[in-house]
Amino acid sequence: MSTLxxxxxxLKKFSGFVKKNKLPKTVLESIPYEQVYDNGVIETEPGTFTxxxxxxxxxxxxxxxxxxxxIFRTYGMFLNSFPENAQFQIFIRNKPTDRRxxxxxxxxxxxxxxxxxxxxxxxxxxxxxxxxxxxxLSQEKMCVVSVKDDHVSHAMQVLDSIDNEIDASLRRIxxxxxxxxxxxxxxxxxxxxxxxxxxxxxxxxxVDKDGNPTFDLQEMxxxxxxxxxxxxxxxxxxxxxxxxxxxxxxxxxxxxxxPTWLSTDFMNDLTDIxxxxxxxxxxxxxxxxxxxKKVRDHMLSxxxxxxxxxxxxxxxxxxxxLISPELYRSQExxxxxxxxxxxxxxxxxxxxFTVVVFGESLQQLEEATRLVKSISRKYNAPIRPLxxxxxxxxxxxxxxxxxxxxxxRMLTTESSSIFLPYxxxxxxxxxxxxxxxxxxTKSVIMYNxxxxxxxxxxxFGESGSGKSMAAKSEIYNVLLxxxxxxxxxxxxxxxxxxxxxxxxxxxxxxxxxxxxxxxPLDMDINYAGDNDSLTMKANYIISMIExxxxxxxxxxxxxxxxxxxxxxxxxxxxxxxxxQLRASGNPVTCDKSAAPTLMNLYKELQNQPEPxxxxxxxxxxxxxxxxxxxxxxxxxxxxxxxxxAYNIKDLGGGMKDLGLxxxxxxxxxxxxxxxxxxxxxxxxxxxxxxxxxxxKSASSFLMEIWKRARKWKGVPTGIMQxxxxxxxxxxxxxxxxxxxxxxxxxxxxxxxxxxxxxxxMSDAQLDYVNNAEPGCGLIYNGKTCLxxxxxxxxxxxxxxxxxxxxxx
Length: 808
Known about the structure:
This protein is of the alpha+beta class. Among the domains are: 8-97 and 136-286 and 347-419, no CATH class; 288-346; 519-636, Helicase, Ruva Protein, domain 3 (Orthogonal Bundle). It is built from 28 helices and 25 strands. The strands form 3 sheets. Strands 1, 2, 3, 4, 5, 8, 9, 10, 11, 12, 13 and 14 form a 12-stranded antiparallel beta sheet that branches. A hairpin with a 2-residue loop joins β2 (42-45) and β3. The two termini are 44 Å apart. It comes from Blautia faecicola. It holds the Pfam family P-loop_TraG. This is DUF87 domain-containing protein. InterPro entries: P-loop_NTPase, P-loop_TraG, T4SS_component.
């Protein structure tokens, strides 16, 4: 994507001017602001107030050309949204991350559970991934706004109105995002980290109630300090073409000239430099009426010069074609500019582009400078060091929206938009689950699903794509990460048993010949907190009976009423029993030895007068007392291990759908028990998820789980090959709409198209799940969609655990 620059003659006429500056005498005087306010506003000089906003990144690099163009145009609208009396700045910083500190944020801490050999191996793999990626640098992007006003209260009102406009404008670029002003502590902490890259001073000056270091501005005031003392370095020294802050070397460079054509890749390439640096683009809008007058005056001046040249050519007898082509080119460019301003909503800005690079030594500084210059030559956009203006340039680059330089360039909205700050999104959260590497940036992906809009997830992938390995990898990570997690797996093909056993878990083998039983009528009375425990249990049993009927028919309304009545009847004694236990001080909320069974329901149906009741009894008879009575017994299995798998492979095809559903109820009861404890998270994985979507009632029940699991700290995940089963009904569609975490492995075209439409993904993004290698795909968390590569070394213990059977 490229842009057209304004004519050189107009640029020279209306460029910025030299600004005289008083030289500071001390380090504190060099920090360029006057005072700070509790609402995050910093007054840089008397009557000039600034506010800052963190910007979320957008996956601009992998967006298709038409989407890039849409983002480009919307960003231009964002630039135009600022009032003419407000200056603003786009600030990007690549900041170094202490390697040891960073590794501590992703490291799996040892625990007393016999699994530390796996944690150690995973830590080794993470160390290798970090070394190959860019996790030693983190990137932050900010927008800073500056307004001038003689009255503080009125300035705050103006900034408040700008808040809303910025939030609305940026949501057009990244739907669902929120842009709010940075707090004062955030801004001061940011400045402190810029001034103290060598770690010679610390920002914290107090401790919180838990004894953790924190910053308290009031505490600083109480001890006679100021905010500048909180951010100041131990010393600064400015030379002709570089400077030092503490022990860190730095240099300010500026964009000397904007070429006629410039690609948005220019900014991307600069921000990809693997060095600590800051980039600032300062915008000073020119009042539209004044800008139009200047352009008209320039047009009149050009016309007069051309007319005079033509007249002189005629008088002296030579062709008008010999007149300088530069005049005609300037006339054409100025005419185009006038039309753009009148018809295409183009505004004019004075734009100052600066870069500050840092290095631990002068040699590192020269290397970073060389890389910046190399990129500038690539795009014919020369970037040069400032001479004897290093301090002014540094202050103009700081995220304070100050510009005291004389290197302005006048650009239109479209030309200004070429400095688009968006490149590639990252997904990194401290102590999150490891999902591999970002295939674009090679950075480690660490994400905690509990931070999402909800905790629900889905994993899609065609046969052989590695979707089961992806699920096992997440399970493995969750188990090793914390003590407050319990994991359940419904395993239709016995794929997970070897891993579960190796990790010290429990495998419950269910079959028609098994002596292990799970009672689908178990019920935890804690759910009565919603006053609808029996209602949901009745809905569950209706769904279960519909599975028993088979896909050829659904349960009619009258039949549902009969089942509902019978369910309430058979639970009367159970609820009374549980009430007696509670009265005696017994904390048990689910007594599996007293719960009713399918046989109780069968007999209750037989006692009803309606012929429909007899028909329902006939349907469930084989499951209650016949050859398929596996689920007609009281539960005799314990599910207290950290990880539990229900192996239902040997139930047979006719019972597998029912087995999935019965195991789901057992997990639901355990989730309520765990959730009532207040600190235990229940993660459960349902493989062959599509089997439960073939029944309308079962889909409805699953939707209830997807809606209610969060309340009980439940983290459900469905694993399946195709999206078609999710499109069968409103309930099944709502399952995907209520899943804020989705992993996609290699998918068939129909499934790619379906997910692309549902999740509003581009064709460029979907290319990452078109014939993708096993272990590679896309991660979507409701806002961010990233391509990932999560292939473990084949000689690792982890690979042996998660690859124990062939992919289904």
